[in-house]
Amino acid sequence: MTISEDETIVSFDVVSLFTAIPVDKACTYIRTKLENDDILSDRTQLDIDDILRLLQFVLSNSVFVYNDITYKQIHGCAMGSPVSAIVANLCMEAIEEQAIQSATTQPKTWKRFVDDSFAIINKNAITSFYDTLNSIDPHIKFTIEHEKDKQIAFLDMLISRRNNSIFTFTVSQPIRTATWTMLHTTT
User: Which of 56, 64, 102, 163 is the most exposed place for a label (fewest CB within 10 A)?
Assistant: First the structure.
């Protein structure tokens, strides 16, 4: 990858992704995906409404016990449910597509893993794009981390810029120095 002097490296992270996703909105995103799936009928005999009713039930009925008290999760995708990871990924895909398409200046590069996104974007467009990301859904909030000293930690890598090129280095453990910090992880 190349990067020019008027571009910068940033990362965006969603705060508490699973519990932030409204179930109704997730089902709306997934309905659209299923309606555009030309081979859905080859994989299941269930129709889209049946799939969504089941999904709504699973995502809306998460109970857990803490200190001998039973709780029911009342917002967001069910914590601990295997389907929540798939739903979160599909929702993030819809959110990022909408943000990128509606941005006045799109990122030159956009890479995402679950709720962590890496971008190369024009320095003058960072605030506008960040605001666009955070305007898509009032429950989904992104944080931003800017490159420092021409580098940024992203997932298990240190991404560095040098001579208009991007280099990556694998990081085996969190970096703990005054100038570098690893991104925090969220569930």
Answer: 163
Q: What is the pLDDT of residues 112-144, one digit of tens each?
A: 998 999 999 999 999 999 999 999 999 999 999
Q: Which two tokens stand for residue 65?
A: 């016990």
For CA atoms 89, 95, 98, 100, the dihedral sign is negative
CA 61/CA 74 separation, integer angstroms: 8
Query: In what order do the strands lie in the sheet containing 151-154?
Result: 151-154, 157-162, 165-170
Question: Among all chains, which residue has been given the structure tokens 């508490």?
Answer: 16
The CA-atom distances, in angstroms, between 18 and each of 86, 94, 110, 114, 138 are 10, 15, 21, 10, 14
Ramachandran category for residue 163: left, alpha or beta (phi over 0 → left; psi -120 to 50 → alpha): left
* pTM of full prediction above 0.85: no
Look at residues 154, 184, 158 and name the one whose alpha carbon lies nearest to residue 171. Answer: 158
SS3 78: coil
Q: Specify the range with the lowest mean pLDDT, choosing from 23-32, 79-88, 178-187.
A: 178-187
Task: Tell me the backbone φ, ψ of residue 126, rounded to 5 degrees.
Answer: -60, -55
- Give the tokens for residue 46: 């269930």
**How remote is the C-alpha of 98 from its chain's centroid?**
13
